[in-house]
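Notes continue from the previous slide.

Worked example: a multi-chain complex. Inputs as given:
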Amino acid sequence: MTTATLTGEPALTRAVPRLAAFKIAAYLRSHRVVQPFLGLLVVIIVLYSTRAPAGQELPAYADSAAMLVPVLAWAARGLLDAEPDVQRLISMTAAGRPGREVAAGLLAAGAVAGTLAALAVAVPLGIGFAAFPGPATIVGGLALHLLSLVAGVALGALTSRPILRDPATSALALLGGYAGVLLLGLVPVPWLTVPVLGWIRAAGRPDFLTAGLPGPAAITVVWCALALLAYTRLRRTRP
Amino acid sequence: MRITDLSFRYGRRAPWVLTDVSFELPPGTVAEVTGGNGAGKSTLLRLLAGAVPPGRGSITGRPPVVGYAPEIFPVEQAFTARAYLGHLAAVRDRPAAAMDLWAERLGLTDLLDTPLRDLSKGSAHKVGLVQALLAPPGLLVLDEPFSGLDERTRAELPLIAAEVAAAGGIVVVSDHQHGLAGHPGLLRLTVAAGTVTVTTFETGLVEARTLEARTTEPRTEAAAAAGLGAGRAAPAGEPDGEPVPHPRQAVVEVLVDAADAEAVVGKLRADGYQARLRAHTPSEGAS
């Protein structure tokens, strides 16, 4: 037996990514990834069953990013809910601190949602566009889906089981939250919520990357940062 | 490791589970947490392990490496025992081979490739114990570790606790079955009515003396009139906040037929008492 030495706390740089890998493995093995993957397929089929004509790639990407928010939120929520509650307690002690478990969960959720978002950008390049778009359009598409990813992870985290115990309430909050964001987007006050409709409007502008994107992107980042801050604060008392 | 004025409740409107609890766990301590169902034992263990933060008060000096084994291991995970422990070893920055020694000691080796969902209650419990021991713990927190274990593993656990303590670690065990009763210097943390009473056992069974029993929680008038207050409020005339002695324990000798002895001891233990069986000779009865 060998309890002769007491080693130190596991290093942050190793504990968090390894715990994130454990969470992703648990998520994939639980087959919960099938649901958001089907959602992604539906979005791709709806948007690209008829190839987007040349020059319309960026608006198509914007529609894709907007429609994927609930899909990515579902993926994030499913990942964060994949572990039993008691396992989170074990993971917290294994990682050294509760905050590391929260960080690992968000990292894992971001990785899964990021993979789905990357597919949403890459697949149309092969089958969704009439002509292969230029690099500016691809960068614009990546930026839009990055915003979708951040919004989806924030919404998914706030509706995950540690925050909302009841699955039905959680699902309603996720879908209702997304619907609320869309409805508030109709109000002519762009900073009132995550400007999902603002992404779509901005994508129609010729100067999208330089003038159209920064405003909605900044508002999106601020709202999502507040949401993730709320999530991490709530998790302090909801392990 | 020092717990100072610790209070906890699960929500802003929820009742306090623990109130103004203070005690100290020096390195090398083996502590047994007892108390009735719902008294807050598991909550205290989670607070000590650092899995939940105190509502008020503080826990300082917690060792950096904490091993925590829950009362019920969560088997609803799509891993084999080996894959699960491999992931947990990686998180703890330990090689996967770290599980082998503990799996061997706890009799889990043959089940390492079994899916967690297919493990029996006792075997799943062993997985929980192994993951808590993957890195040499400075603080080992075990919630009802003897529950459902076979005799071999039940005999092994006190040895492991003693070894962790001998290495300078702290062991805190919630245990209705008093599996660590023979440990010299065992500290007992009795959780009741929102507080924790600390008692130490010098010879391991019946000779107990109070180390510390302290609270600052006000008693209700009714409780004060009844002489209650969870056995921890300062009695009249005693300065507030001073340690209050816990009543000394007593030995009750019960003479039963030899054929009924095991059953009586079992019932006493099930009721939370420390009971041991010894042979009775006629000369004892005559004296």
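Summary box: Chain A has ten helices and no strands. Residues 1-6 of chain A have pLDDT under 50 and may be disordered.
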